[in-house]
């Protein structure tokens, strides 16, 4: 084309970014990469290699080591060995290393960007302007957190050796999100990049060498899923952090169940992009481009479900199609393209198959008139309309450039449609009415809500899922807790605390020991309920005296209780102040019946009256603590780098199952149930199995304290049986378990199906009387999840 012609047509020519420096890097390793263990390049003991390609050209870029069990062992051993020194150098020195990493990444940002685009197939414009700047920002931000650990988070310590497994869609960014907080908090890591995109992680290893990061603090091992699984199973690994498919996330949840390994999972999504009729449609169109055609749609939080208000649907589809026609697809290194190639042949097949299924199921497909380049793994931007909410393409994560559109009429319907998914990673809300946006955002079950924007990230804000999008947060202070453990955990004991006993049990005048001469019922939906099975269990005191009987709850009773908890929609929406009022009222009513509750404890345990009264008094004190916190455990406005107010709001988890400890019959119940409801959850409680009467006596207190029906439901019976039913229940969102080691394992195992948030004690006991062990913000944090709401400002 002649210059004059170019001026006339104003079409873009190719503007390739040079790959020279990246090629030099590959050549410096003779295009054959070893493993980075203990600060050195080590040959894989299998001597096996696999190839990583450029998906735009299918050209082989380099050979990559396949790490086996021996190599994983080596890496974990190196990380373990490096740990004491890395801990002891303290916050400031760690901060300096993180700062040095940030500087070096910035200095080599062009090389990183080119290498990333070559290996992954994503546009250089994105790696250069989005991925790599976020990576550098992440290390800078966490250099700060490293410095602040011992002052801002002084009740916490490092977790130890961290195993990290990351996907291929944002290879270096995911590495930064994993490594920066981990090492900032004093942990050492073994990281496995994805098999399709290991190159920038290997360049990062070189950067670690360059800045003189102590050997073994960061180890990079390459390989496929099996290498990842070996890392997950390794006994010396104290935590696994994973980003990837929900399927593998569930495998990892099950594999780590009961081991005590900390776990954070950032999984898939099918995020709604909701457009109300008053939205600025031209902005919406650009938003859609960023939501689903950014990174070829291979984004866990991609706005892949377009939900449009019916009145403007056709108009918007028309505009989107016009914009799709102008999108440019091509080689990732071309600076003027909008879309590159999909990462691998298998991913292209998944997309192609799902699109075919969409057509087969009757949805209408639209693609631009132009064709994709022939050589690489390209897939054109795609729009589906006439989609039914239950169809495969509306439910399954496609992980490609495929937008699925549906329409709604009312606001209520929009929320319902948005939440009609098993996922909950993000949502994007478009309207010019800020009141509407802020009304909708809290109603969507997702970890991030973007208002009039989409796919914005920053190191200062937490990112992570609700529901089957996983648990845990990355970024900001929210993300740090994933790499810390409370110091108080070291004080937990293998045995419950001993209580002071009476000298001898005192029988009643009628010769019967003290007790309840009736069968207590259960408490469901604000009413006392008979057990479905009609059975009861005899409860004896510690001395073996008959005390009374409790209802033996079964599967059906749990189901009824969960249903009652879901039916109560009023509690979560109450203000902190209103919740506090109810909690104070509970405390007041318990105080009135202080002696009666102490008597009951004495009957069950034969402990002396003074210690029983202490348990009641600490319970009242504890309720006051959570009443006080109900309107004080609040959110933050994060200092993100964009022109945004980023609100981090703690929200209720939803319906929680709470399996109380057997010991401290009253205080164990109070210490677990009260923080959960203080955060707005509705709970199904299984009280102490051998001492249930403090909980069954508590019904009267709940009834007289304005606790709404369904907020606290109590099912008595076999702890093992009932907790398993709760753990398997699909409508239970979170579960706390205080019991045996084996029981803890079961809870973690069974809760994987719908990815419940779990908190278990692995058979360790707290001294519930001790404030540092029995109460605090840890309980509130475990009873809530943070949603980050991004609200841009300015013109
Ligand atoms: P994947 O979940 O299999 O891979 C992610 C990482 O996990 C890779 O490093 C892989 O080697 C590793 N891995 C695989 N199996 C493992 C195991 N059993 N134990 C430990 N580590 C294991 O994802 P894949 O196969 O690359 O992509 C499949 C689908 O997953 C995509 O189509 C997409 O739907 C979803 N996905 C979601 C991502 C997200 O960010 N949410 C990222 C990547 C994929
Ligand atoms: Mg590759």
Describe the structure.
The two termini are about 40 Å apart. Helix 6 (about 125-150) runs parallel beside helix 7, helix 11 (about 280-295) packs across helix 12 and helix 20 (about 575-590) runs antiparallel to helix 22 (about 610-630). The longest helix has 29 residues, at about 125-150. About 55% of the residues are buried. This protein is about 40% helix and about 20% strand. Strand 30 (about 735), helix 26 (about 740-750) and strand 31 form a beta-alpha-beta unit. It is globular and about 100 Å long. It has a ten-stranded mixed beta sheet, sandwiched between helices. It has a five-stranded parallel beta sheet with strand order 9-8-7-10-11, with helices on both faces. Strands 29-28-27-30-31 form a five-stranded parallel beta sheet, with helices on both faces. By secondary structure, it is an alpha/beta fold. It is built from 28 helices and 32 strands. Bound molecules: 1,4-dihydronicotinamide adenine dinucleotide and magnesium ion. Magnesium ion binds near residues 119, 196 and 197. Magnesium ion (MG) binds near residues 52, 53, 119, 196 and 197.
